[in-house]
């Protein structure tokens, strides 16, 4: 992205807006991008105000420009679940919303009555990964 130097500003704190704020790339930018592009699951853990959100946003924009399908989910917005089932259903709902997938979560759960919550979740993620490599994810049951 090419932006005229005079239009960039220095921002302290908060997620940077790529078209407005000055961002200095770090080795972690390329490392995160490379890991995500190779299909790795990545946790970004660090103290407050060190650029985690900006790092994630830059990787998200770069992957989207290349046509990748993915979901960015803020786990804190899922709240405190009363059970594993409630938590994973909330996570799956968030992912299906982000990826614009058609999924009746209750029907999906009923279609796998002999599976544990973890097994159902793994089934969902496996099917979504298949979608990422070109298979359809319309009928997830």
Please describe what this structure looks like.
With 141 residues, this protein is an all-alpha fold. The protein folds into two domains: 5-65, no CATH class; 75-132, no CATH class. The protein has five helices and no strands. It has helices spanning 27-37, 52-65, 84-99, 105-110, 117-132. The chain is elongated. The termini are far apart.
Quick gist of this model?
The protein is mainly alpha-helical and 141 residues long.
Describe the global form: elongated
The portion of residues assigned to helices is 40-55%
| Proportion of strand residues | under 5%
Radius of gyration in whole Å, from Cα? 18 Å
Number of strands: 0
Give the averaged pLDDT, no decimals: 80
Oligomer: single chain
Task: Enumerate how many helices there are, as a single number.
Answer: 5
Class from secondary-structure proportions: mainly alpha
Largest sheet: none
Give the N-terminus to C-terminus distance in angstroms: 41 Å
In N-to-C order, the SSE pattern is: HHHHH
Can you tell me the residue ranges where pLDDT is under 50 for at least 5 consecutive residues? Answer: 133-141
């Amino acid at each position: 992205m090419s932006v005229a130097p005079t239009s960039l500003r220095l921002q302290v704190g908060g997620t940077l807006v790529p078209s407005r704020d000055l961002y200095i790339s770090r080795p972690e930018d390329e490392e995160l991008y490379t890991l995500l592009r190779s299909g790795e699951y990545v946790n970004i853990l660090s103290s407050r105000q060190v650029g985690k959100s900006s790092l994630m946003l830059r990787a998200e924009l770069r992957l989207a420009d290349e046509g990748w399908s993915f979901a960015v989910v803020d786990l804190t917005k899922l709240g405190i679940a009363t059970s594993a089932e409630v938590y994973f259903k909330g996570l799956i709902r968030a992912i299906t919303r982000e990826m614009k997938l058609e999924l009746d979560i209750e029907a999906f759960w009923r279609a796998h009555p002999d599976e544990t919550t973890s097994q159902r979740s793994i089934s969902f993620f496996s099917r979504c990964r298949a979608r990422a490599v070109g298979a359809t994810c319309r009928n997830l049951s």
